[in-house]
Amino acid sequence: MNTPIAFSEEERRLRADLAEELGFHPATLDPDDLARHRRLNAALDLAPSQQRISRKYAHLSEERRQRDVEQRGREEVADLYE
Q: Which of 7, 48, 59, 75 could covalently link to 11 via disulfide, CB atoms 3.0 to 4.6 Å apart?
């Protein structure tokens, strides 16, 4: 039978603060685990967004779109030149 764990008021406050900082309730309050979570969150904050990555490679999508439009146009008029 699982018995609920009673947390002290200080521990509840610490868990609430960590949940606000990290965006989730950490399973442990081990300082090494918390440092790892903070390090991973910091790295994630520095990572480029999906929107930024999409903009970076947008020229490839545009080239592919232009190539497809040109190919369709050639196919539509091909019978005129046969």
A: 7
Whether 13 and 42 map to the same domain: the answer is yes
Q: What angle do CA 69, 72, 75 make, to 5 degrees?
A: 150
> What is the full per-residue pLDDT of the chain (82 aa) written as tens digits?
565 666 788 888 998 999 988 888 888 888 999 999 999 999 988 999 999 999 999 999 999 999 999 999 999 888 877 7
Number of structural domains in the chain: 2
Report residue 30 as tokens: 């081990």
Read off the pTM: 0.49
Assigned domain for 23 exists: yes
